[in-house]
């Protein structure tokens, strides 16, 4: 891989703490391979080779070892006032200008050029993924239409019926399998009155394509972590085959969120119940100017990123504080995300049972698990890949 240092498009001064490297590419071949890979689970070696041949890597002044996770490293830590600020600060409409004044770097992303985000040790801790070819753009437009129609059919407005929630004020509906800490077993997410509409969305070709591409991008940039998701999902399916599967054969994520209403921008938050050393996949949908609407803010990384329609980002949402700038007047934005709860990983690691059940069934295994909790956090860090590892695997 060429070692050419170059500054990506940015509206802020160059920051010496961040290193950028641009790589050459053959765009047409890359698009074709990504298109093929996005139609099934995982990324092919050919796709990996082509995507890794170009892009811009951004290094931030933070190390994955600094991520805050709960003891045992199955979830992040709940957000605190010291971390997220007061309720007013958490829900504040931050602007690009004030973030730049605070020292954030603005990444002017086209939504198509791959941008891996590296920590100080070179781990890829997040990625701004590329996109497949022109037919994918048509699928994304169709997905946006389906989301819009779903909101109208359900009689949704721009704000959630139940009022503000942790992530924002927009209508958000989850489908799939979930598990909270302390729950006895994974459960089916209940989208209440939206069940029929969400089931149709999950079965739509355009939504399937979007979910499949999120999955393929995940497998490309974080293959070891992806394998953890795949193995956990397989164990879950073997033990509880009656549980629903949103995109069988196309995605290893356990759950998906449909964020509707046309005014989707998030408050300052983190999804601490998600697997802290895994990724949440986010795809933006709508008719909006990415230079003024719902720019992605990654607080610990000091980045604010243009996030265009059809673009996909993968972030460790359980340990990185994230939010968006507001949706500008006249713009329309929605989003689609996939994720897996950390408690599902813990349940599978315990032999498909809770810690209390493991303690009764196998006291020695329980004691060993408890003794290893303090080191579990660090043991997961090396599952994040590096650029050198990924390129070496295809050479």
UniProtKB/TrEMBL annotation:
State where composition is biased (Basic residues). Answer: 16-32
Gene3D superfamilies hit by this protein: 3.60.130.30
Region called Disordered, residue ranges: 1-46, 69-89
Top-level taxon of origin: Eukaryota
What is the protein name stated in its UniProt record? Uncharacterized protein
């Amino acid at each position: 891989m060429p070692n050419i240092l170059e500054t990506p498009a940015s509206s802020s001064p160059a920051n010496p703490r961040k290193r950028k490297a641009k790589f050459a590419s053959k765009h047409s071949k890359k698009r074709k391979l990504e298109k093929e890979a996005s139609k099934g689970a995982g990324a092919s070696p050919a796709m990996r080779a082509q995507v890794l041949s170009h892009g811009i890597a951004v290094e931030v002044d933070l190390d994955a070892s600094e991520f805050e996770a709960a003891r045992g490293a199955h979830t992040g830590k709940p957000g605190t006032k010291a971390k997220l600020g007061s309720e007013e600060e958490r829900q504040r409409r931050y602007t690009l200008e004030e973030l730049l004044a605070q020292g954030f770097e603005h990444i002017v992303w086209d939504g198509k050029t791959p941008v891996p985000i590296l920590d100080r040790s070179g781990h890829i801790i997040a990625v701004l993924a590329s996109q497949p070819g022109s037919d994918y753009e048509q699928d994304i437009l169709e997905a946006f239409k389906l989301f819009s129609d779903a909101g109208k059919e359900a009689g949704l407005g721009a704000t959630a019926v139940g009022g503000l929630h942790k992530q924002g004020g927009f209508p958000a509906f989850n489908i799939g399998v979930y598990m909270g800490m302390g729950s006895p077993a994974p459960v089916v997410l209940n989208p209440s009155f939206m069940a029929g509409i969400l089931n149709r969305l999950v079965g739509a070709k355009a939504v399937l394509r979007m979910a499949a591409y999120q999955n393929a991008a995940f497998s490309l940039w974080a293959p070891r972590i992806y394998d953890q998701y795949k193995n956990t999902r397989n164990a879950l399916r073997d033990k509880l085959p009656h549980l629903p599967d949103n995109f069988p054969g196309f995605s290893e994520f356990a759950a998906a969120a449909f964020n509707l209403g046309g005014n989707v921008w998030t408050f300052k938050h983190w999804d601490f119940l998600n697997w802290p050393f895994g990724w949440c996949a986010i795809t933006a949908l709508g008719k909006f100017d990415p230079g003024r609407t719902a720019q992605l803010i990654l607080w610990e990384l000091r980045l604010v990123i243009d996030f265009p329609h059809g673009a996909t980002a993968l972030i460790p949402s359980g340990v990185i504080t994230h939010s968006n700038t507001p949706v500008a007047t006249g713009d329309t934005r929605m989003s689609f995300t996939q994720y897996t709860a950390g408690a599902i990983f813990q349940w599978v690691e315990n032999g498909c049972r809770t810690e209390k059940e493991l303690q009764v069934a196998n006291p020695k295994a329980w004691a060993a698990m408890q003794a290893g909790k303090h080191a579990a956090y660090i043991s997961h860090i090396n599952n994040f890949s590096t650029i050198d590892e990924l390129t070496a695997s295809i050479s």
